[in-house]
């Protein structure tokens, strides 16, 4: 071995000129083909894309920006603890639907967990500046949400997954949580329940406010003996804690409605741990059905909707906004009740 020899130089990153040469076209034609612009035939575009894949060519974000090209990426930021996201089926199904809707148009999803809305606004600003994404989706909107105002001002394509009352002038997709909650409460009242409590989510969120307002109005309309909402952080631990508090009084509720499935499952375990039988001593309703709702015993009565399809429709709405087409709020089908073994007439 020749110890004096130098190591081979690092492999050169392929350029647009290399792609053009391999495809047998001009650099301009190669750029048009890779950027999805008109002016080249589909046969040429396919040949250029195949050459780029074979060479491992990837355009930098700066080069795409200079060429006015799109990144082919949609951004999603979530302000949730990682431990909550890891166990919450709603977000897993939503993300699955988003990715399916985006992939159908050769887009990918960039997900970032943030610690507060200020951080989230900064992430949006950086993505926009770096041309990392072509548009963003935001969830868990609150009343007077600063993210909405910042995105409206920037003009960046954005879609809100939440009610129009909190979406400002941005396009959005939503389902009427008031309709769903009314269906669940009226079902429990029809069974004979007069003391119903709700383990709610974070009170500052727009959809939580809608549910709370609906629950309070229904209690007055139906003349319930008691109807209380206790907020929580959506975690199983908090759901169990609130459940024990609600059931630890003399005139305890005979039915509980939970704002997500994780809290409902934890609440079921907490009630059983207190010696209560579900559904004979206590009825339980979960919001947003999931496999875990059907696996516990008894299986939980739940508000059911196709969350994955909801995500896919949100992705299509964002792609329309990215394309510059006029978009507005889309009213999706609300969740409907699926009665199972966790609900029965009160004792």
Automatic annotation (TrEMBL):
Residue span, HTH lacI-type domain: 14-68
Keyword Membrane annotated: no
Per UniProt, the keywords (alphabetical) are: DNA-binding, Transcription, Transcription regulation
Superkingdom of the source species: Bacteria
Q: Name one GO molecular function term.
A: DNA-binding transcription factor activity
InterPro entries assigned to the protein according to its UniProt record, in alphabetical order: HTH_LacI, LacI/GalR-like_sensor, Lambda_DNA-bd_dom_sf, Peripla_BP_I
Q: What Pfam families would the database entry show?
A: LacI, Peripla_BP_3
This one is known as: LacI family transcriptional regulator
Q: What is the lineage of its organism?
A: Bacteria, Bacillati, Actinomycetota, Actinomycetes, Pseudonocardiales
């Amino acid at each position: 071995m020749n110890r004096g020899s130098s190591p081979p130089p690092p492999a050169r990153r392929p350029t647009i000129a290399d792609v053009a040469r391999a495809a047998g076209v001009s650099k301009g034609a190669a750029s048009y083909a890779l950027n999805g612009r008109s002016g080249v035939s589909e046969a040429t575009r396919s040949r250029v894309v195949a050459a780029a894949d074979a060479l491992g060519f990837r355009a930098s974000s700066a080069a795409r920006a200079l060429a006015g090209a799109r990144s082919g990426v949609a951004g999603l930021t979530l302000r949730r603890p990682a431990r909550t996201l890891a166990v919450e089926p709603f977000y897993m199904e939503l993300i699955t639907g988003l990715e399916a809707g985006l992939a159908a148009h050769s887009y990918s999803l960039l997900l970032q967990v943030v610690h507060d809305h200020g951080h989230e606004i900064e992430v949006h600003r950086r993505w926009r500046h770096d041309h990392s994404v072509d548009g963003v989706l935001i969830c868990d909107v609150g009343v007077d949400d600063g993210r909405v105002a910042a995105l409206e001002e920037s003009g960046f394509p954005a879609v809100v997954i939440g009610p129009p009352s909190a979406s400002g002038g941005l396009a959005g997709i939503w389902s009427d949580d008031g309709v769903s909650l009314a269906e669940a409460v009226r079902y429990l009242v029809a069974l004979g329940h007069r003391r119903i409590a709700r383990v709610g989510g974070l009170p500052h969120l727009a959809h939580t406010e809608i549910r709370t307002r609906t629950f309070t109005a229904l209690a007055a309309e139906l003349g319930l003996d008691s109807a209380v909402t206790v907020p929580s952080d959506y975690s199983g631990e908090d759901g169990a804690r609130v459940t024990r508090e609600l059931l630890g009084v003399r005139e305890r509720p005979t039915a509980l409605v939970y704002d997500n499935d994780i809290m409902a499952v934890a609440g079921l375990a907490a009630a059983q741990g207190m010696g209560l039988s579900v559904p004979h001593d206590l009825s339980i309703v979960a919001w947003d059905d999931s496999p875990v709702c059907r696996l516990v015993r008894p299986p939980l009565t739940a508000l059911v909707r196709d969350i994955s399809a909801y995500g896919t429709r949100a992705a299509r709405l964002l792609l329309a906004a990215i394309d510059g087409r006029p978009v507005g709020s889309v009213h999706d089908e609300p969740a409907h009740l699926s009665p199972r073994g966790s609900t029965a007439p009160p004792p």
